[in-house]
Amino acid sequence: MATIISNRRVAEGIYVMHAKGRFEAKAGQFFMVRGWENYPLLSRPLSVYDQDEQGVKFLYKVAGEGTERLARMKAGDEVTLLGPLGNGFPAVHGRTALVGGGIGIAPLYYTARQLEQADLYLGFSAEVYEEHEFRSLRHPVEIDLGGIVLDRVDFDAYDTIFVCGPEPMLRAAQMKSAMSSGRANVYVSLENRMACGIGACLVCSVGCENGRKKACSDGPVFRAEEVVLA
Amino acid sequence: MIETTLDTVCRIGKVAFKNPVVMASGTFGFGKEYGKLYDLSKLGGISGKGVTLHPRPGNPGIRVYETPSGMLNSVGLENPGIRAFLDEECAFWERLDTVRIVNLGGGTVQDYVEGARLIDEDSTVREREGRQAVDMIELNISCPNVKAGGMAYGIKTSVAREVVREVRAATSLPLMVKLSPNAEDIADMAQMCEEEGAEAVSLINTLSGMKIDVRRRRSVFDNLYAGLSGPAVKPVALRMVHQVCKRVGIPVVGMGGISCAEDIIEFIMAGAEAVQVGTYNFVNWQAGAELAAGVERFMAEEGIRSLDEIRGIL
């Protein structure tokens, strides 16, 4: 059990939860989170937004019953956390771009915080959130509201590109990568539905070039060209 | 204070389970992942992820959808195939101090039989070398029967009989048949398994269900239907276990929505020898260890020394 330090609304349906505990999460990893006993049955996979001496932060969007319950929780309430899980982002080299769409910006903050150099591209459909936090990292930040954030990224200008966002955005990143010079190693972070979160149940399985892989324990980060997005 | 020892041992033929808590197939992988979270020797047993003769990629599309007190799954038997299971997972199983059950699926009767034979041959070699990895086969007859137009083997007793008979003849390992609640008559099905020489039956597999995305006007699942599990199915499962226990003399392993020690006691009172726990592993990753301890606590509180005192009392 982890005590909630704070749980604040940062935009319509978007929250940041800070939960107490000593974790050693790597950028791009996630936790299975639940703020209730038995119902809803499944925990919710949330990626690490930030980590500090006090605990771990999650930036999340209310998408259903589970996240709705999380949003109603207050400082002092308890959440159950299983994690950190998954492998997170690999080590980077050269010029790096971090590209996030909507709530897909969540894993990029802690990632950016650990990098010497990174250009951030953040896309939103209706409302911009956490802009101030991202800008405080002192990396260049480009914000796109209502457009296509990927259009702003020159794939040939980078050695490493991390992309996290809705599936159509990941597919677009795959296409863009395939049509680029191939200079950049492009990685995508998936947000599949999960049940166990540790690689036992196969409900988050994804088709890859060498057969099936598990989004939770083999991912959630994959090389863009290795995953088959439906 | 008088020291009393609690007898939680359950038996299927010669196989002894240290307690009634067995992890259900499909929810526990081959045990490795949960084995990093807690000591698997606290479990009565584990039934591994269902394996088939040939590797299967499983179903495309969304594979899980939560429903009130339950979940629908459409994994579609994704598995690496029996050969890969024997080569890659059994080294881990060799070292486990709990009952190890291979869950066997198939597409044709021939697939089932050949699969059972592979497991049996491997087991014979291992036994000779003193490094057994498999204690029992759990036969999953809920797989679609290609010859019968895709209808599962587990619906009609006459169709299932052939598979059970052939697999029985192909292995000398203890055989447990996992029954589908979608069967026309589950007690008939169980009786058939007993007649064909199975050592046990386990029930219930998932109930066939459906979820429609009303905005997109289509099923959530590419495969149209999916399997319902979780607490929502428990009353149905308990009733079916009770009916089957009244019909057959072989041990019955009950499952369906178990989420606490009292649920396990219910199944045992309905006549089950042991139980399996599936969906609850996703609710509580320490489910197995906690439920095993919970059964002992219940027995101590109620002054029960052996589960035999309460088994099948209804």
Automatic annotation (TrEMBL), chain A:
Annotated ranges, domain FAD-binding FR-type: 1-91
Keyword flag Metal-binding: yes
Native source organism of the sequence: Saccharibacillus alkalitolerans
Entry keywords, A to Z: 2Fe-2S, Electron transport, FAD, Flavoprotein, Iron, Iron-sulfur, Metal-binding, Transport
Superkingdom field: Bacteria
Transmembrane segment boundaries: none
Cofactors, names only: [2Fe-2S] cluster
Keyword Metal-binding listed: yes
InterPro entries: Cyt_c3_hydrogenase_gsu, Dihydroorotate_DH_ele_sf, Dihydroorotate_DH_Fe-S-bd, FAD-bd_FR_type, FNR_nucleotide-bd, PyrK_electron_transfer, Riboflavin_synthase-like_b-brl
Family, similarity comment: Belongs to the PyrK family.
Protein name according to UniProt: Dihydroorotate dehydrogenase electron transfer subunit
One Pfam family from the record: DHODB_Fe-S_bind
UniProtKB/TrEMBL annotation, chain B:
Cofactor(s) needed by this chain: FMN
Enzyme Commission identifier(s): 1.3.-.-
The UniProt record lists the keyword S-adenosyl-L-methionine: no
Pfam families: DHO_dh
Cofactor: record remark: Binds 1 FMN per subunit.
Family stated for the protein in its record: Belongs to the dihydroorotate dehydrogenase family. Type 1 subfamily.
Gene3D superfamilies for the chain: Aldolase class I
SUPFAM superfamilies: FMN-linked oxidoreductases
Listed pathway(s): Pyrimidine metabolism; UMP biosynthesis via de novo pathway
Chief place of localization: cytoplasm
Protein name: Dihydroorotate dehydrogenase
